[in-house]
Amino acid sequence: MHLESLRVLRTELATAKASTAEERLVSDPLQSRLAIVTGGSRGIGFAIADKLAELGAEVVITARNQDELDNAATQMRKSGGKCDGIRCDVSSLSDVQQFSGNLGRRLGALKILINNAGVGGFSAPLHETDPETWDNILNTNLRGVYYMMRAFAPTLIANGGGDIVNISSLAGKNALPNGAAYAASKWGLNGLSYSAAEELRGRNIRVTVVCPGSVNTDLSPHQGKSVNRMLQPADVAHVVAMVVTQASQSFASEILLRPTQKP
Fold it and tell me: How far apart are CA 112 and CA 29, in angstroms?
């Protein structure tokens, strides 16, 4: 083969490889990135984790029930995604610390943290809410996010930046009779998110809070509502996917998500 022909062949091969890499980046924009999703074994968390895995991320899901985590991770792997389930109660500082240690060297690829784990409480006015219920809701929905951000924000800083998405609720913007503890946890989560966004934006970390309305999950009250009109977990996952794949020079600090028709 003549030297010029060899040069042409090498150029064509290099072009083909570059084209393949670009196509892979378009179809898998989150490749080589590690994403953590709390409360990822079902509902909104599962939908988010599944979507991130579909976009090429390696996903680690956490929840309190290891069997549910194993089932969810297996389901995602069968669909072609990369997913592991590691038990962690985000309301426990020692659990969060142990979880962080279990990830080890994998943290070098961490770029996305989704704080989704949450519990509800919509059956009684505040003066009839017992302290145990109050503690369970606030410790999971608010304290747990603080623990996770405290544990993993330094890693994101060390990795050059990334995205933190906190799943809140429209209950964090509006009054919620018989759900005051839940509303308080989400109002608090919104304030935490706005403040952390200002603290971390200079470190190339985008902090976004997503506030959905009624979502068709086990957590949301369904009485008197049309399930078909409620938001679906996939709707929230779609928004999170947009947030973590948007251009690096901008970020959406808050997204309010409502169903098109009131349920």
Answer: 13
The pTM (predicted TM-score) of the whole model is 0.88
pLDDT at residue number 123: 87
Residue 192 and residue 145 in contact, taking contact as beta carbons nearer than 8 Å: yes
Residue-range domain boundaries for the chain? 35-220+239-257
Characterize the bridge pairing of strands 162-167 and 110-115: parallel
182: annotated active-site residue: yes
Q: Which CATH class is domain 35-220+239-257?
A: alpha beta
Selecting among 146, 147, 182, 194, the annotated active-site residue is 182
Average pLDDT over residues 193-204: 98
* pLDDT band at 263; cut points 50, 70, 90: confident
